[in-house]
Specification:
The protein has helices spanning 4-15, 18-25, 29-43, 59-83, 99-116, 129-137, 183-186, 199-210, 227-235, 249-254, 282-294, and strands at 48-51, 54-57, 91-98, 120-127, 143-146, 156-170, 180-181, 190-194, 219-224, 240-244, 257-262, 268-275. By secondary structure, the protein is of the alpha/beta class. Helix 5 (99-116) links the parallel strand 3 and strand 4 (120-127).
């Protein structure tokens, strides 16, 4: 996208932090404020507001974010389609993806990619975010896709797509009429959580930490290594779970599971590409561009 100010704004709107925006875009925090200020002056609106220590989008900010994301998607699609005027790529691409991405986000992208580029052989391993990053460090894969908040030194991360974690329970259980619960009430709820090293668990820990709650204070009745296992457990028990919203689309449509709002406990994160080299190979870049244009 040619207007770097919009890239700064999109990043700030997703992270709700000028500090993290500066870190991700490798610019100073005053530069972030300057770019946001220029947009506010241009459109004569306030894009962000502070509520206590928290940064929030205004209504105008929400409108600009929706428009800016459409522009960014169209620009990526244009860049990718024009790149196809060059020779079609060939070779082997070794991918690693964290569990949620491997199960719910990546399969349709891989199906379309291998159809479009039959000369590319794709191999994929799946594990939690920590295992994917270890595989990169050991040169077992060319490109990873992770969901964790932490950033490991020596690896390079590029945001791919936003995600939200939601609290779910079975529809016919004791919480069938519960619309929302507070962070404090969450301490008493029987919960199923992911295993250590999971990006999902890392996001939950961070969000609860901001609310003054630690994992040992929760009523954890089971830890499982996959989202499918967690969903099956919840369907057959009175426990709740916190999972990615993309993992429960079918269950929500069929009415098997329902979402219960967590008051004042936002659980948002970004899925990210991660690779070792600052400048990845041409085939890795080709897949990244395809995946971003295919969203």
């Amino acid at each position: 996208m040619d207007d770097f100010r919009l890239k700064v704004f999109i990043t700030a709107a997703r992270t709700l932090s000028f500090t993290r925006t500066a870190e991700r875009l490798f610019i100073s925090q005053p530069a972030v404020s300057k770019h946001i200020g220029e947009l506010e002056s241009q459109y004569k609106v306030q894009l962000f507001m502070r509520r206590g220590s928290r940064l929030e989008l205004t209504g105008a900010g929400e409108t600009l974010l929706a428009c800016a994301e459409r522009l960014a998607d169209d620009y990526r699609c244009m860049q990718y389609e024009m790149s196809l005027c060059a020779d079609a790529p060939v070779g082997e691409l070794r991918l690693g993806a964290s569990t949620t991405i491997a199960q719910y986000l990546l399969p349709p992208i891989l199906a379309r990619f291998t159809t479009r580029f039959p000369g590319v052989r794709v191999a994929m391993m799946s594990g939690n975010s920590d295992q994917v990053e270890q595989a990169l460090g050991g040169h077992g894969i060319d490109l990873g896709m992770v969901e964790s908040l932490s950033r490991r030194q020596g690896l390079h991360y590029t945001v791919f797509a936003p995600d939200e974690l939601v609290l779910v329970a079975r529809t016919g259980g004791p919480y069938s009429r519960t619309e929302s619960i507070t962070a404090d009430e969450l301490r008493e709820i029987p919960l199923v959580l992911r295993e250590g090293g999971s990006g999902t668990l890392e996001v939950i820990k961070a969000a609860l930490g901001r609310a003054g709650i630690r994992i040992p204070q929760l009523n954890v009745v089971m830890r499982l290594g996959s989202t499918e296992g967690i969903k099956a457990f919840v369907r057959n028990s009175d426990a709740m779970a916190i999972v990615s919203v993309i993992s429960v689309v079918d269950e929500l449509r069929s009415g098997v599971l329902r979402i219960i709002d967590l008051e004042d406990l936002p659980l948002r994160r970004d899925f990210a590409f991660v690779h070792v080299e600052a400048e990845p190979s041409a085939l890795v870049r080709q897949f990244i561009e395809f995946a971003r244009a295919d969203r």
